[in-house]
Write a structure and sequence with these properties.
4 copies of one chain form a homotetramer.
Chain A (H helix, E strand, L loop, with lengths): L6 H18 L5 H8 L3 H7 L3 H21 L8 H18 L1 H12 L5 H10 L1 H12 L7 H22 L4 H15 L3
Helix pairs in contact in A: 1-2, 1-4, 1-6, 2-3, 4-6, 4-7, 5-8, 5-9, 8-9, 9-10
The structure holds a DNA duplex (21 and 21 nucleotides).
Chain lengths: 189, 189, 189, 189
DNA sequence: AATGAATGAGCGTTCATTCAT
DNA sequence: GATGAATGAACGCTCATTCAT
């Protein structure tokens, strides 16, 4: 009976990959990643058959964490705007608390080594959150534009806003609010 | 005397670099770029002392083209909204007409091989366009947020919009308008 | 665990380097050296982090072998002149038996890629031999010139002598003796 | 009628080559040498068909200058020892006054790109000086060893002595004398 | 004759991956 | 399962030399 794969090592590898990819881009070498994770070069390949697999798994892992965060319960009695504001705040907060992961994600999104399939898988993980936001926008935005606001604008606008906050951390409150206002007012029918 | 540097070859190299970087990221090899440009590997380095120089020059080149496009005259008698709509349309049109350049730009922006200095140089090239947009927003948006709307939101939102259009080219008109509306309504005081 | 570094391969690399550097100078390529050693190009760099390291290690290695040879016991009852003659003979013999190593050494000494530190390390390895020679010269040479004779003249004169022998191997005995006589008589007070 | 080759440019190229080879070894690039000489890369090759030719011509040039120096008249009435001392002094003085040329020479001697023919040509240039030294040693050294002393020892010993002086310039007088004494006393029959 | 752009082989080095231990 | 030595194809870049100007 062989030794089982250690979840701990897998995690260390993903974290090391996240750090190094954030820093150096997807060109970060497997040797460096393995070393940063405290395992040998060969071990990386028992957890991820190839570097592409590591990249894709990392992408899914990070998106998955974000999706989990978004899934936390929302106060159902709050107004649509207020619930959407919570979505917005969670997005921003997660990004600021996971800035390396976010940087890594940026690199991964832009790389053609992350497959369409991985992207699709991640998209699916946001199904519930998406539905929730859909409800929030239901009475507020033009129905035919709702898909555009959610799928195209919301997350990307949050990303932009986070970049602005990252550049001027002291103005976080103001920028965060300005970003939300832009989205809310801009999406009004 | 001797043979003069050929602007044609320089152009071919930049174009080849643009294509391959759009496709493969900044990891695209100088050998491939030279081959695609129809010159020998060594020749690349007579035009660009190093790959980093090529990357930076390409970045500046692309941004410069975009900046030129934005600089074309605007009808001074048009309303603020209409003039901003022209800005928006030019941005989108340029992006759609130069989709590889835009993809390459995306990769370059995300790479730390493009220096702060190059980014600064490009930022400066948009000074006039920026002033113009500032005037458009003057009576429309809250004064303290105008900088945020221009420096952080406008171009990035256009990028997002272009991505959406690229994914669904048939809905171009609709998406382009939805993006503009979001910006205009969202930025109203 | 894993495969241990093979002392055999390291040796083969150093020997191949010695041969090729003797022949072609320090410009001998790592690819040629690896091939001559029967390992792949990459393997060279698992044994020596860089070509400079290889060069320095080789320098130290060769000097070390020579130093070992010189360290063999000397008949304590022999006269100063006779003991010095043994030093001289060992020097010449080593040189003739290791003519490629000696040629390589010549190239390495002349290269600025061999660091001051490596040279210092090697100098130190001859400390005991140096002391012995010092004793031999003690009653024979002018005290203020002993350092000059040892540090500057002895080894270099042996080198010159070896070159002469290499050019006319048949006259080895005569040349070897002539070289020694020059040193012994020339250094007399 | 084509433009004649300029002796000035040829000289500048040889001098630049001397400097750079002294500094960087024979690996110094033709481009750097041309630049240092203030001519274009291509021009180097109208004066020297190949880098090997440049190397060989430089070797001959430097040796030739030294040979010229040695050829200056000697006081015929002086004793053999005194005349030999003049030879020795000129050798040392030339070396100290032309330290870059000497360093370059060292690199060239050790390189297999300098052909046996070039070496032979240089050897021949010292014919007269050699005869003169031969006369000086005639009544002093064992006849069968005179060739060894002249061809093998004299110049090389001077080289060694110069290195020692270069390392400790303040002790020039002492070292220069010690070197000569070693040669004179060492070569006595 | 002079120039320097053009060339492609070669350089030292890195890399993802394999496999003996 | 874990290790890290082994591999050889690429990589970015340099070079001696050629040749259009």
């Amino acid at each position: 009976m062989a030794r089982p794969l250690s979840e701990e090592k897998r995690g260390a590898l993903l974290e090391a990959a996240s750090d190094l990819i954030a820093q150096l881009g997807t060109g970060a070498s497997t040797a460096k990643i393995a070393k940063a994770a405290g395992v040998s070069e060969g071990t990386l390949f028992t957890y991820f058959p190839s570097k592409d697999d590591l990249l894709n798994d990392l992408f899914v892992e990070i998106e998955s964490e974000l999706a989990q965060t978004m899934l936390a319960p929302y106060p159902m009695e709050a107004s649509a705007r207020d619930r959407l504001l919570i979505v917005w705040s969670r997005l921003i907060e997660w990004g600021l608390n996971h800035s390396t992961a976010r940087k890594a994600l940026l690199q991964l999104k832009v790389s053609d080594r992350v497959t369409a399939q991985s992207r699709q898988r991640c998209h699916a993980m946001f199904f519930d959150s998406r539905s929730m936001v859909e409800q929030c926008l239901a009475g507020h935005a033009a129905p035919e534009r709702i898909a555009f606001y959610i799928d195209t604008i919301l997350f990307e606008l949050a990303d932009i806003t986070m970049n602005a906050i990252a550049a001027k951390p002291k103005e976080r409150e103001v920028i965060q609010q300005a970003g939300f206002d832009l989205f809310w007012k801009g999406s009004a029918a």
